[in-house]
Write a structure and sequence with these properties.
The protein is an alpha/beta fold. It is built from eight helices and seven strands. It is 44% helix and 15% strand.
Length: 254
Amino acid sequence: MSLDMFRLDGKIALVTGGNRGIGLAIATLFGEAGAQVMLTGRTETDAVRSLVEGQPDRFAWVAGDVTDPATPAALVAATLERFGRLDVLVNNAGVADGGNFHEFDDARLARIMETNFTAPFRIARAAIPPMLAQGKGSIVNIGSISGFVANKPQLQVAYNSSKAAIHQMTTVMAFEYASRGIRVNALAPGYVVSDMTANGIANAEMNRVWTENTPMGRFGKPEEMATCALFLASDAASYVTGATLVADGGYITH
Ligand code: NDP
């Protein structure tokens, strides 16, 4: 055994939503841990440009809207073309939206489910064949505490349902591929500082409720999600599959 098991040397990773927030932190840490990383999202941010220009052999970028049915296979194909294999998939891209259940219309429901569930399903589906051919692979799906509980105070049935679906997809995929070298796990963050939570954190009342409901009394940092994702992705988690690792400052303990 060695601490090197926590590293990703020689491994190729694809991180969706790698251009900002939690995904950017994951992609950056994976690079530091030795992986070569394909980042993707709709917007090529300054952070992406800086990573790719600074370390062109380590980081690459491909643009894509994951709700376009053609994008999932294209992302995997671009990764294989650029780096030759795919060892780790992080299904991180996601969107949040909320409001009264009985007023949540079809267009908003479709956007949530297509981004947060259908797209990760399709991307994982495209990633499995090269992983099977290699005899090894690791998939990390970014779920949420919202997949376990109702959030306070905001109402968001569609979002929470999409994240519960991701947790269950993780469980059942893990069962299906466990004997063929592919591990599938999920990470369920609590409230993390990012664009997704920026409005809530800036709102004094939401901020108070979110903080009071988090036993640690603070929000998580994207980097604190990245370390969890690294563990799940790496050989350090070689006997871990079908797990949903909760990283929430204690939010769902009560
Ligand atoms: P951000 O809003 O900061 O980032 C969302 C990411 O998803 C961006 O990279 C965005 O890129 C990408 N994305 C969204 N829609 C699409 C699309 N249609 N096609 C391609 N990429 C898309 O959020 P976070 O970093 O906070 O969230 C990352 C993940 O973590 C999400 O799955 C979220 O649900 C989950 N999560 C976040 C929590 C938090 O408190 N922040 C808590 C629990 C879970 P672009 O817009 O350029 O396409």
